Amino acid sequence: MAQSSQNPPFQQEKVIIPNKYGNKLVGILHEAGTKEIVILCHGLRASKEDIIMTQLAAALENAGISSFRFDFTGNGESEGSFEFGIYWREVDDIHSVVQHFHEANRRVLAIIGHSKGASAVLLYASKYHDVKTVANLSGRYDLKTGLENLLGKNFLERIRKEGFIELKTKSGSVDYRITEESLKDRLNINMQETCLHIGKECRFLTIHGDADTIIPVGDAFEFAKILPNHKLHIVEGADHVYTDHLAELASIVVDFMKETFAQGQV
């Protein structure tokens, strides 16, 4: 059946945004007819095509909310080399995206990040105060944890001796290299201090699965303790990437965005 002019079909458009370092960031704009827009930020070694990003964009579309999912520098289709760490450079990427839509006379309703992307949006909210709603999906509270699982035992000793650690794929080829400098970039981030610099008017949603073996669910409760304007939702049985729980994740996010619209937090 033909779509009426009063209910136009959803549109997707590839958008290229230059960041402050001259790299082109590539993203997909999901137009749902709203001036307001939600920005979606992927996690480590992921991209805008990550199933969490695409499912959230689809759910927001169906709720009549426009969104933009993009690749951070060195990921997916975006220019630049992938580097471990560089949290603040990813904050710069988010800022470039936010500025692009502000200049296009769009209102950024919220920024949503998963895993490492959640860390980036938290850091963004601590530095800039131009977006009043943030969603933290399975973000890490203590960035000093989780490294031994990723890098192996004695990783600090090895990286100081060799200057780097190479992470390999299952086939044995080098996936990426972690330098001492990039490791320090992560270790120097204090998320407690970061949260204290976030304005009280900023609404926060934290979602975390209680079966997450990558980032323990306890991290979600730490965010709940320190962020004053905060809502916590634990998804029972969900792992780090919400396998078998994507619909529930999307429903929680969409409901929170609808609340944000209703409260005029734009």
Automatic annotation (TrEMBL):
Regions annotated as coiled coil: none
Domain Serine aminopeptidase S33: 34-147
Organism: Pisum sativum (Garden pea)
One CC-aspect GO term: cytosol
Protein name: Serine aminopeptidase S33 domain-containing protein
PANTHER family, per database record: BAAT_ACYL-COA THIOESTER HYDROLASE CARBOXY-TERMINAL PROTEIN, RE40534P-RELATED
